[in-house]
Specification:
Layout (H helix, E strand, L loop, with lengths): L1 H16 L21 H17 L3 H15 L2 H11 L5 H13 L5 H13 L3 H13 L5 H12 L3 H13 L7 H13 L3 H14 L4 H13 L3 H11 L7 H13 L3 H9 L5 H13 L3 H14 L5 H13 L3 H9 L5 H16 L3 H12 L6 H17 L3 H14 L4 H13 L3 H14 L4 H14 L3 H14 L4 H13 L3 H14 L3 H13 L3 H14 L4 H10 L34
Length: 596
């Protein structure tokens, strides 16, 4: 958004500088902006260059031009812009110049300190980074520790380096005495795969906040990550009785049980204390995933008897539970009983899905057509009806009908990004990359700053074509908008790999996986590690991806390409070690689109 505003400002400034000549006057004499004595005029050239370069995804050129414009205008906002864009490039010298100018123009406070610490980490100046982060954590502003957290989570290109610096800060008690801060840094240590550091954080949190149950949650997470599931369960059992009085704690404990695979214990935890529709819905989902139809039936009966005339939200929930229990006719009755209002449209969509489950496809598609043509239906509900119709046709393996549903949806809503995005993914699944690209580009015509479309198109070009430089420019535009988005960092790492830069790629993919535990990111990282000859670590990360989602498309394609078994060995082992053997890049490494 800021780039668009800057472009508008440039055009307005140009218009203001253009004199209006009367018919009787000679045309004005124009001089080149760089020859002007006015700094504002001299700024226009580099500022326009910066804007065009940024829109083209050429970050190096954009950073240079913003830095030049900031120097001419003596504008701290432009200096900040130059710094932030330069931090997305590997040119540390330019980043240092931009930071110096930003500081010279009067910048101070959290943002400047965070940028300086990020640069220090990138340059490997850990002592300097430790000092800057200590200053950041000591700042009186409430956002100080959050900025420090962001630097350690995304500013360093080496998770091991982030762990070392965080260990220093913990040992010297630099983290402020706020439980939220300690819990956040404890979670970061878990993602950085540093069990000794997690242990040190737990010890200090216990000392700072004795008796605080959320500290036990961090301890349970640590034990789970270390593979000590029984010990983690023991810790959770110790704080479980306190959950009835604290709904947030109850949710957190249930989440930990969920991560341990104890769906029944997660549901039992949520069942303690006051209930609402959200807690009931979560419990139902857990029981459905656990395939515990006995307990789910008991919950269903409890909800049915709770009120003779349930509220609309409760009727919708009862319909969903009936779906879980495969009581489809009852589900249809509950959905039909949801009265007017926004929930009515969700209930009608769910009802169409149930009809399809009952193999009453004609009725399902007729129900969706009725929503699509209902003038009283809000536009989002009508668009969802087209999307659901396409999804059901996909389930029926009727490709022609799926694409026809998209076409009708776009005839009604020509500029609906959600429908265009879904159709683009459908084209990509069919290996029709030109049509997928066309839909992504149409989204970008409608919404030029759509981060999801920029990232998806960039990833698709990187993954399914050889247009790697173009892919890099699109992903760079997404990175500029959301530099800490794990999916975008993953796309960036993947395009670096496809460009033949695996050493740089592995750094970015490690960062992405540290930010978000995701099967596709893990599969990408594992493949690059394999190509770099780090076979033992690659196997470990492949297993991490498999544990998250064994059917992940990127995971299975990578395993097939590398000649590795799609399913884990019967004994759970990873095979013989061959660390150091070289692998070779293939023609196509992964599938799917990592959307922001």
């Amino acid at each position: 958004m800021r780039s668009r505003l800057l472009t508008t400002a440039v055009l307005l400034a140009l218009a203001a500088l253009m004199p209006v000549a009367r018919a009787s006057e000679a045309p004005p004499v124009l001089i080149a902006p760089d020859a002007s004595d006015d700094p504002a005029v001299r700024t226009l050239g580099p500022l326009m260059t910066a804007e065009f370069a940024l829109q083209a995804g050429r970050l190096d050129e954009a950073a240079d031009a913003y830095l030049e414009a900031a120097g001419e205008a003596r504008d701290p906002l432009l200096a900040e812009r130059a710094t932030r864009i330069s931090l997305l490039t590997p040119d540390d010298a330019r980043t240092a110049r931009a930071l110096g100018l930003w500081r010279e123009l009067g910048a101070e406070g959290l943002d400047l300190l965070a940028a300086e610490a990020s640069l220090s980490l990138r340059q490997g100046q850990e002592r300097k980074a430790r000092r800057q982060l200590s200053d950041l954590l000591a700042m009186p502003e409430p956002g100080g520790w959050r900025q420090a957290f962001g630097v350690l989570a995304t500013g360093s290109h080496d998770p091991a380096q982030s762990a070392r610096v965080l260990e220093y800060l913990v040992k010297r008690d630099r983290i402020p005495a706020q439980l939220e801060a300690w819990m956040a840094f404890g979670g970061l240590a878990l993602r950085l795969d540093s069990p000794a550091l997690v242990e040190a954080i737990v010890e200090r949190v216990i000392a700072h906040f004795p008796g605080e149950p959320r500290v036990a949650l961090l301890r349970a997470s640590q034990l789970r990550e270390a593979g000590e599931a029984d010990a983690a369960r023991e810790v959770l059992a110790g704080i479980d009785p306190k959950a009835a009085r604290d709904p947030v704690l109850r949710q957190s404990i249930a989440h930990e049980y969920d991560r341990l695979g104890d769906l029944d214990l997660a549901e039992q935890t949520l069942a303690r204390g006051p209930q609402d529709d959200q807690s009931y819905a979560t419990r139902a989902s857990l029981l459905a995933r656990d395939e515990d139809k006995v307990a789910l039936t008991a919950l269903y009966d409890e909800l049915r008897q709770d009120a003779a005339a349930p509220e609309p939200a409760r009727r919708l929930l009862l319909g969903q539970i009936a779906e879980f229990l495969e009581r489809h006719e009852e589900a249809l009755d509950w959905y039909a009983g949801v009265p007017g209002g926004l929930l009515r449209w969700q209930a009608r969509l769910r009802g169409a899905n149930v009809l399809h489950e009952l193999d009453r496809g004609d009725e399902a598609y007729a129900a969706l057509a009725a929503i699509q043509t209902d003038a009283a239906a809000p536009d989002p509900a009508r668009q969802d009806a087209y999307l659901l119709e396409a999804a059901l046709h996909q389930e029926d393996k009727d490709d022609a009908a799926e694409m026809e549903a998209f076409a009708r949806g776009l005839a009604t809503f020509p500029d609906a990004p959600e429908i265009l995005y879904a159709r683009a993914l459908a084209w990509e699944r069919r290996d029709d990359i030109p049509r997928a690209e066309a839909d992504f580009r149409k989204i970008l015509v409608i919404e030029p700053d759509s981060v999801a479309a920029l990232n998806a198109l960039g990833y698709t070009l990187a993954d399914r074509t050889t247009r790697y430089q173009e892919a890099l420019e699109l992903i760079n535009r997404a990175r500029t908008a959301q530099p800490e988005n794990a999916a975008i960092i993953d796309s960036y790492g993947w395009v670096l790999y496809r460009l033949g830069r695996p050493q740089e790629a592995v750094v970015e993919l490690r960062r992405a996986l540290a930010l978000q535990e995701d099967a596709e990111i893990a599969a990408h990282l594992a493949e690059v590690l394999w190509v770099l000859g780090k076979r033992d670590e690659a196997r470990k990360v492949f297993e991490q991806s498999r544990a998250i989602d064994p059917e992940n498309r990127s995971l299975r394609r990578a395993l097939e390409k590398l000649g590795l078994p799609l399913d884990p060995p019967a004994d759970g082992g990873g095979g013989a070690s061959d660390e150091g053997n070289e692998g070779g890049p293939g023609n196509r490494a992964s599938g799917g689109v990592t959307a922001a």
